[in-house]
DNA sequence: CAGTTCCATGACTTGAGGTCATTCTATGAG
DNA sequence: CTCATAGAATGACCTCAAGTCATGGAACTG
């Protein structure tokens, strides 16, 4: 299994064309337009030509700046993800109530946040599920390097407050938190990814709150310190 | 957010061309060859033309049978997933030791199984992360309709034995199990998706066993009935 | 102002998915 | 055995989007 991705799969290229000084503004405008297009059309259906047309520039320019459609998407993805709040961005009074209250806060608000501005959320979905594995690897690198949601510091916060089990590796807790939060939110928010939890048949949406409570309970038992 | 996938995204087509009687054998041969190609090249890099060439048939034939590359991949994906064992396929003596022992059994064996035959595993990865959202929706439908790993019956098994919490909806348990098992196994097995749990810096593979034990412990606290 | 680097352009190339009129072939009736 | 017919196979052809590149500005540099 070792050599599959390195030898059999065609080499990806997310060439990081170094940010040229003069063109920063233009790069940013391209990324913005591309974000909208990707969000609305999906990765495959989005056309680089359309993005260029929408901006009134030549298609070649986009390739000169980003090298490839993948390269462009990766920039778009990073921008989208960086625009999301970090766990510890919750209001102080919430933070003071502790680790799991911060989680509850965000879960309850996610839906609202996404409704207000679904474009970056949609892009993050595309990156997570809708492109290809080579990109997924790149995204993983990005997450490990930047920790854009501040999960690591958030877990440290929970550990310091004694709200999290000390007998687990921190990495393990971080992974579990990342995985389950991501999947739960995706199921909560998007039709494509709901395995029937939220949309089976005419589930009244009040049930969502119950689901959130249940989910938090499960998580607390899983990684939380013994209560009292 | 409601209308995104229905109105803005171009309509996908996984037309289920009804299985013609005479061509069953050929369909199967195409699916086999395609499985190998997708696994080795990835979805995007795989060429329908190559698959046809490898079989010594015309490209048009493949489209006649499966309608589109997506359609072909979906068949391949289903075949791959159906080839995996169900939870309750574990040996009786393992089953007798209970729900979590069955999980331990499969986690310990997954790596082995995948080494022996990584092709269907790779295909399932592609379906889960490397194609597009429209396909993801189709895959979710498939899972809900077929429950190919037998997760639902497995959870019922755990509930009947009193090993799982009775205060959670069954659907919730199933989802949590699916999510975490999938991600954990993916991290265990693949470079692309490993968020650093197993390969951060030359982790010796003995650590894997420890991870598996930790993971099971976490899961047991999360969804298991109170011990003793 | 001259020289140089960067940037924009759009016509062009490449190549993959997908179509379709035609041809072939297996089957079963007469 | 022959012919009729439906399903399957074919490959030339079409479409269209990603990606390239030679050329021609535009903006700094000294």
Structural account:
Two copies of one chain form a homodimer. In chain A, 66% of the residues lie in helices and 0% in strands. Chain A has helices spanning 4-8, 24-41, 48-55, 59-66, 69-82, 92-96, 99-116, 118-129, 133-146, 151-160, 170-189, 206-223. The N and C termini of chain A lie far apart (46 Å). The first copy, chain A, is mainly alpha-helical and 228 residues long. Residues 1-13 and 15-20 of chain A have low confidence and may be disordered. Chain A contains twelve helices and no strands. Chain A folds into two domains: 13-81, Arc Repressor Mutant, subunit A (Orthogonal Bundle), CATH 1.10.10.60; 85-223, Tetracycline Repressor, domain 2 (Orthogonal Bundle), CATH 1.10.357. The longest helix of chain A is centred in the last third of the chain and has 20 residues, at 170-189. At the A-B interface, helix 1, helix 8, helix 9, helix 11 and helix 12 of A face helix 1, helix 8, helix 9, helix 11 and helix 12 of B. Chain A binds a DNA duplex (30 and 30 nucleotides) through helix 4.
Brief overview:
Two copies of one chain form a homodimer. The first copy, chain A, is an all-alpha fold and 228 residues long.
Relevant terms:
homodimer, 228 residues, mainly alpha, Arc Repressor Mutant, subunit A, Tetracycline Repressor, domain 2, 2 domains, 12 helices, disordered N terminus, DNA-binding
């Amino acid at each position: 299994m070792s050599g599959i991705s390195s030898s059999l799969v065609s080499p990806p290229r997310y060439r990081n064309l170094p940010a040229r000084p003069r063109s920063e503004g233009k790069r940013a405008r391209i990324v913005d337009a591309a974000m909208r297009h990707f969000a609305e059309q999906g990765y495959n259906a989005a056309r680089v030509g359309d993005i260029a047309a929408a901006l009134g520039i030549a298609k070649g320019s986009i390739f000169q700046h980003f090298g490839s459609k993948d390269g462009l998407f990766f920039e778009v993805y990073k921008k989208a993800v960086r625009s999301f709040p970090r766990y510890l961005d919750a209001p102080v009074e919430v933070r003071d109530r502790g680790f799991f209250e911060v989680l509850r806060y965000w879960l309850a608000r996610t839906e609202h946040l996404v409704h207000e501005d679904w474009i970056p959320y949609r892009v993050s979905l595309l990156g997570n599920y809708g492109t290809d594995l080579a990109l997924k690897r790149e995204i993983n690198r990005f997450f490990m390097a930047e920790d854009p949601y501040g999960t690591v510091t958030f877990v440290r916060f929970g550990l310091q407050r004694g709200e999290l089990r000390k007998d687990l590796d921190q990495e393990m807790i971080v992974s579990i938190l990342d995985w389950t939060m991501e999947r739960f939110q995706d199921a909560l928010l998007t039709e494509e990814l709901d395995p029937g939890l939220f949309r089976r048949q005419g589930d009244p949406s009040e049930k969502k709150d119950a689901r959130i409570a249940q989910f938090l309970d499960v998580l607390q038992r899983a990684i939380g310190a013994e209560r009292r």
